[in-house]
Specification:
The chain is of the alpha+beta class and 472 residues long. 25% of the residues lie in helices and 21% in strands. The protein is globular, with a radius of gyration of 21 Å.
Amino acid sequence: MVRAIPTVAGMTTLTEVKTWLADQLPALIAKYDVPGAAVAVLHDGEVVDAAAGILNKATGVEATTDSLFQIGSVTKLWTSTLVMQLVDEGLVDLDVPVRTYLPQFRIGDEEAAAVITTRMLLNHTAGFEGDIFTDTGVGDDCVEKFLEVLHDVPQLFPPGERFSYNNAGYCVLGRLVEVLREKPYDACLRDHLITPLGLTHTATGPYDAIMFRAAMGHIELEPGTGFQPAPVWALARSNSPAGSMLSMRPRDLLTFARMHLEDGRAADGTQVLAPGTAARMHAAEVDLPYLGVMGDSWGLGFERFDTPDGEIIGHDGSTIGQNAFLRMAPGAGVAVVLLTNGGDVLSLYHDIAGHVLAGLAGVALPPLPTPPASPERIDASRYVGTYASQVADLVVTQEEDGRIWIEQTPKGLFEELGEKPERRELVHFRGDSLINVEPEQGMHIPHAFVGDDGAGHALYLHIGRAVRRADA
């Protein structure tokens, strides 16, 4: 039996968290069909960790606390930290066009390219389409070559207008770091973060990861068929600055988090970031529409949850069948890392991070969204239409009986990976937002409709990314 998550009033100790993890992690991963998971918790400079399950269903290798999992887009915090080191050194001004440092930066909209700043790239307000996963090879020039892929990428909205999660923007930031440091992105990670932080179980790619017990991602190609090892280990190296390669054990990720909680200082006193810079990165820069599992606002790289009990910051990561979660409560000196390789990871995250943050920091995670028991029937004509991106077409329809449906057809990389079209029913959630009736990988996902096309229709379907109406 899995114990209930304590309320905020039920404060606990780190020793009790360690006992709870050892006792409950095996039961929780079984409950949520997660092959393997590893957890680490930081409180007042002390760390406890735990692991359970297996790293790969094909081999049966057991997960340990020293096993490496991909951290996916949590890498963006590492990239943003590399950029802010350049700001600390006076080499980058956040508010001048990024072309000041990268004259070769081009996208489909020349006017937008000329004004997009480093700050806009960091806080995801640059406005160009961001889910670009083109493989430009495995050489040290892959990030440089990736910039050429962006020349025809469309601009979705004016730079700085709104938040839209942008993987490609972080590849641009990775190239900025490469140019100013005069070395490849992986070398920048090693020289300016991994080595100064004293990390021992961190890999920038498969050639490093193979030296450790490394997790394999698991995916479910069709609902109900079960999670099986993914067809490939990682995404393209060209997306490394956005989160395609970096892997580590939970303790190493916590060491990075601790540096941020301690005003940029490493455990040995090395000032990895200038005093005050970490706080600048954590502070709110742009608000988001309500998107459920995503934050309320975003900083310079950091996702933010503004709860009644206090601020929670961090980031999530998702690669091919691997998911990572980092949550930090700066006011309490608490951080928790969960690394996984398949299954209902959102429910597992909510149970584990919820327990830790409530017990050690007195902060409750925001509840996961659920559809109303008796949803209001609405006229969905403002939302009906096709919304298109590089990775999927999303078609919203409404039947004569008032039921609303969304059909998602994967394109590009996700079609190549074998993802199938899906049709899901949506109901009214709140305001200009709908929500799926049946959970998707444990999550009822709010679909926010924002903007106007001038004819009374929503201009964007916002699901973390602002997906533009195809005929607008």
